[in-house]
Description:
Elements: H1 2-9, E1 14-17, H2 23-35, E2 39-42, E3 59-62, E4 65-68, H3 70-80, H4 91-119, H5 129-153, H6 164-178, H7 187-196, H8 200-206
Parallel strand pairs: 1-2
Antiparallel strand pairs: 1-3, 3-4
The structure holds glutathione.
Amino acid sequence: MLESAQTTLGHDMLKLIGKTTSINVRKVLWTLAETGLPYERLEWQPEHAALNPNGLVPVLVDGDFVLWESNSICRYLCGKAGRDDLLPAEPQARARVEQWMDWQATDLNASWRYAFMALVRQSPAFADSGQVAASADAWNRNVGILDRHLADGGPFAVGGQFTVADIVLGLSLNRWLMTPIGHPRFAAIEAYVELLLERPAYREFGRNGIA
Ligand SMILES: N[C@@H](CCC(=O)N[C@@H](CS)C(=O)NCC(=O)O)C(=O)O
């Protein structure tokens, strides 16, 4: 099944499967823009189901190599493009980038889900106001952790250089800012978003009006 889906996709250029409104696809689009790697984006089709057992996007197809999980795809693209500035080869610098990416995918993502599904998606399955408030509090606490980190060790997530960690955090902060919860005043977060907005790809794929 995998083989026939890949044959349909062809082998010449990187293929990114997923819609541009998906936060996890937009991480990859931003990373592709930073690396300059040529690619083609495809909308998900039933024939792609064999490519990801989770049935989710994004999925990257690079010839015979198929990869899912947005943060893994972003790291792969940095490596493929030889962009040590975005994903350092030196073990400690690399670990620090991966630390913030893992934090984004685990603690931060887990905290916003209920509030986002209730307040932005307006899903009836997320209608418990107590859980909305708890989710918003946990989300704000996590953004506060990042705010204190940036105040002490910024201006980027890993010090003075823009890395792929800033891509995944930038998308997450866009979602935080666009979700109607009470937002505490976090000066370092505000400065960070302004800094990211200097990058055309954040304006196009990150802070582009889509939560
Ligand atoms: N952990 C996965 C999550 C992927 C995910 O949740 N993708 C969503 C879009 S952001 C999805 O495919 N939803 C189903 C759909 O859009 O049809 C990743 O980071 O790639």
